[in-house]
Amino acid sequence: MTKIQTVTNAIVNQGILPLYYNDDETVTIDILKSLYKAGIRAVEYTSRGESALSNFKKMIEIRNAEMPEMLLGIGTIKNLQQAEEYYEIGADFFISPGFVAEVAAYLIPKDVLYSPGCMTPTEIITAEAAGVTFVKLFPGNALGAGFMSAIKDVFPNLKFMPTGGVDTTKESIESWFKAGVSAVGMGSKLISKDLMAAKDYATIENETKKVLEIIQTLK
Q: Which residues are catalytic?
């Protein structure tokens, strides 16, 4: 099995891709451990702050020592330099807010999953032509589940994941899965700034377990 397929399967099997960023290394690691305890085996860390690269290095170090099954992806990749930096330190998969041709050309031949954000059929066609197989629908709250329903038959060979605006409720999650997505990306609705500030890792773990249970009932 290819590495791209292995990562795809992991995300699809759990049905959710949690994503977060925190400047503090210790908080970053504690959230990762909470997600792992909840049953998560693929996580997106977003490259949105000055500490992102150093924090991600620490995440990989902890993963290698304590949670070898965990796949660590890096998000908010907007240029080739970022992709190169995170590839060199061992990121398992890469996610962008939009399609970046140079990033696709760099990662896909290396058998590394690259999931770009797309919000139009033209962008999806461009990404598919570049070898992308897993598309992030972004922003999900602007597009809505109806958009997924309308395009899914046009792209039978692609897997889709909305990010942005997906709630932790059964109604929200079910609407997307019924529309045809393979997973949902979930950031601040699951790992909120308030929970991070309070270091309330128990709630993050419990809410993640609830979402995983909801998704299993929908499959």
A: 44, 136
Q: pTM to 2 decimals?
A: 0.96
Can you name the residues that pair with 118 across neighbouring β-strands?
137
Overall average pLDDT of the 120-133 stretch: 98
Q: What pLDDT is attached to residue 165? A: 83
CA 5 from chain centre, in angstroms, equals 15
**Contact 71/41 with Cβ under 8 angstroms?**
yes
Confidence of residue 107 (pLDDT cuts 50, 70, 90): very high
DSSP classification of residue 163: B
Pick from 149, 150, 157, 152: which is nearest to 131 by CA?
157
CB 21 within 8 A of CB 216: no
Instruction: Work out whether the CA dihedral 174, 177, 183, 188 comes out positive or negative.
Output: negative
The order of strands in the sheet holding 184-186 is: 159-162, 134-137, 113-118, 93-96, 71-75, 42-46, 16-20, 184-186
First to last CA, the chain: 23
